[in-house]
Design goal:
The complex is a heterodimer of chains A (338) and B (300).
Chain A: H1 3-11, H2 17-35, H3 43-59, H4 65-87, H5 92-111, H6 116-119, E1 155-156, E2 163-164, H7 165-189, H8 192-202, H9 204-208, H10 214-239, H11 249-262, H12 269-293, H13 301-322
Antiparallel strand pairs in A: 1-2
Helix pairs in contact in A: 1-12, 2-7, 2-10, 2-11, 2-12, 3-4, 3-5, 3-10, 4-10, 7-10, 8-10, 11-12, 12-13
Chain B: H1 2-8, E1 30-41, E2 44-55, E3 59-63, H2 70-77, E4 85-90, E5 93-94, H3 100-105, E6 108-110, H4 123-130, H5 139-142, H6 145-165, H7 181-193, E7 199-203, H8 211-226, E8 230-234, H9 238-244, E9 247-252, E10 255-260, H10 262-265, H11 269-276, H12 289-292
Classes of the chains: A mainly alpha (338), B alpha/beta (300).
Chain lengths: 338, 300
Amino acid sequence: MDFLAIFNSSISFILAPTTIAYALATLGLAVHFGFGGLLNMGMAGFMALGAYGYAIGVLTFGLPWYFAAFVGIGASVVFALILGIPTLRLRGDYLAIVTIAAAEIVRLLLLSSAFGGITGSADGLSGFNGPGGTITNPTVGAGGFNESNPIPPGDYGFVPFLDNERTWYLRIVGIIILTLAIFLVWRLVNSPWGRVIKGIREDEDAVRSLGKNVFAYKMQALIIGGVLGALGGLMLAFSTNVNSSVYVTSLTFFLWTALLLGGAATVFGPLAGSIIFWVLQAFLGLLFPALADAGLMPFTTIQAAQIKYIIVGFALVLLVVYRPQGLFGNKKELTFVK
Amino acid sequence: MSSNESSSTPVKSTGLHVGAIKPGVAKKDPILVADGVHRQFGGLVAVDVEHVEIPRNAITALIGPNGAGKTTFFNLLTGFDQPDRGAWSFNGNSLAKLSAFKVARRGLIRTFQLTKALGLLTVMDNMKLGSTEQTGEKLSASLFPFLWKKQEIEIEAKALEILTRFKLDTKRDDFAASLSGGQRKLLEMARALMTNPELVMLDEPMAGVNPALTQSLLDHILNLKKDGMTVLFVEHDMQMVRHIADWVIVMAEGKVVAEGAPDEVMKNPAVIDAYLGSHQDIDLGAVTGRITLPKISKEK
């Protein structure tokens, strides 16, 4: 067993593009649930739209990557509007049911062979980051995200953060987006606008009776959180191919785990939660198979790799019961229990 | 306590009506006029008010047995529920079909029977939320503090002034969830004042409040009138109603069955029948309502 390798591999997730993507989407959930009280169980759908919107923007419409990114963001805004108009007038639980269903509809539409020519169906999409494009159309993706990389080719950094120019570029872009997003959310929730949103979380009728347009505020929160989710999807798409099998309901639940881990009504909790979630996932995902290999666990290597999910689920239960405000939440502010 | 003085001698407004007193009698200066407001839940007619007028700058009590439709009528007037038919106007402008927040913006603010303090907001934030037309509440402006910081300071000063009056200033940084039931009632009323309302509608402001706090709540209600506001409140405590109300409207089974000055109304046989109870001593002058009428002393 190579403990150092496991350790290094786990630590590398602190700054991994996936972690940044999760942090962005989890921040969106924090805006939805932690501050606005909107139970969004379909964040995977927002992420899928961000990722696919970008990929389709490049591949089908031949847009430059930065314009294509706005297609993804625009798609998430439209999705938020479609979800919000019928459901935001209803009680919170209904939004949860509708979002979980809507996210599945999005995923199944992307998976459907009916739109295979655009969405790639079960194969997903690739080559949109360029250079090289797809096999059928080699010019597509030229001038894409990868080619905008100003970093000369080569490996940079130190173990465990030793990576090529592509990963570093992705990281830097991701960190810039995440920093801006965190600052924006911090600014928003500490403004009078944030006060109204938090008031709506507590009791929307009370806020309504004070002359605030509750529906408009909830819609704004839904859109802002949705756009953050789409940015998370974009980060995933920048780093790898898009495939509908990624944007499943369990992705949403992983985001929720990260959110509750960090603290729902916090600005930095989503980032901290995502980092802890991924480092722990990577660590356990490597440790258990290694232990099984060494004959220290009565499982096959493949079985052992799945144990991490059991542990994550168990940890989530403990967390919700014993520390509902999350690791970084205000102890007085038990968002979960009322 | 200086408040004792004011509460022991409330200045009653008289001569509010025009013509003979009957249900739906016209008022000299009505602030709110409702016509044919009808609300049915399935087979139950909850509210069926033919005509009612609320006098301006007076304290009007809305009384009636449980299930008489008082709260439903409140909900209808404030846009929290929509009637099947009917029209009502506030300061001469129709409020029919307006959503709740637009009604509130017109200056008609309500409180709730089950107090709605925003638990995980501080007392101060609860108060600030009440303030209307805040620049910083717009999404675009909220990102630029220099646009709303000055207004925020003004709002805070005003909130603190009202909190001091309600003796909640020491709690300003506590979560509203940590307040007692009575303090939450006070906070809800104080928060309503932040909106500069014209008409304050209080749904059972005294329910579940201890006698000492009742005293101060009474003073606050009387002060609303003194400051030029109009008050409409639902209450079951007849002592309070008699003490502070200038006008009483009695509802039963969704209809307005009687109106009048408190002392007159309570002698009305229809009111005794429908609400006060027929075994009740007609002379209510020395009423200690709760003792003689345990059944109707408090709702919930």
